[in-house]
Here is the input.
Amino acid sequence: MQTDDIAEEDYQRHWDLLWNTQLGIRYHMHMQNFYSKFGKFVTAFTLILSTSAGAAIIATTPEVAKFAAFSAAMLQIIELVMDSKSKTSLHTSLRQRYINLESELSQYEHFTITEAEKFKSIKASIEVEEPPIKFSIIEKCHNELMKVHKLDTEDKQSISWFRRVFGIWYS
Here is the structure.
C-alpha cells in the first residue's frame, strides 16, 4: 500500500491508541510513585517512633507522646485501609502492560480498522483491571503529554491548585 492510499483516519486511529497508551503509562507511573512514597513514609514514621531515640524525644511531655502515638496509629490505620503496597504493585503491573502495548504500537504508523480493533482489545484487557481513575491525575498526565508532544497549549486541561495538591486523595 502506498502512502498516498492511506487515509487520514488510519493515522488518527494509531495516534488515538498511542496517546491513550502513553496517558496510561504516565498515570500509573504517578500512582505507583504516590503509593510507594506514602507506604515508605508510614513505615519510616512509625519506625522512628518505635525506636528508643524516638521514644526519648516524644517522652518529653505527655501531650507530645499522646500526639505522636495517635499520629502513628492513624497513619497505620490509613495505610491498612489504603493498602499502599498492593496498590504500588498493581500500578507497576498496569504500567508495564501499557509499556508493552506502546512497544507494539511503535511498530506501526497507521492502522486499518481491523488492526486497530486488535490493539483496542489489548487496551481493554488492561483497563478491566484498573481501579477507578483519579481525574486530577489523568488531567495532569494529559498536560504532560501535551508538553512532551509539543502540542497546542490551548487544549491543556485547567487544574485548580486544590486539585493539584489534594487530587491524589480522591477520585
Remarks:
- The longest helix spans residues 8-50.
- The helical segments are 8-50, 52-58, 62-82, 84-105, 113-127, 135-148, 161-166.
- The CA atoms of residues 18 and 103 lie 10 Å apart.
- The mean pLDDT is 89.
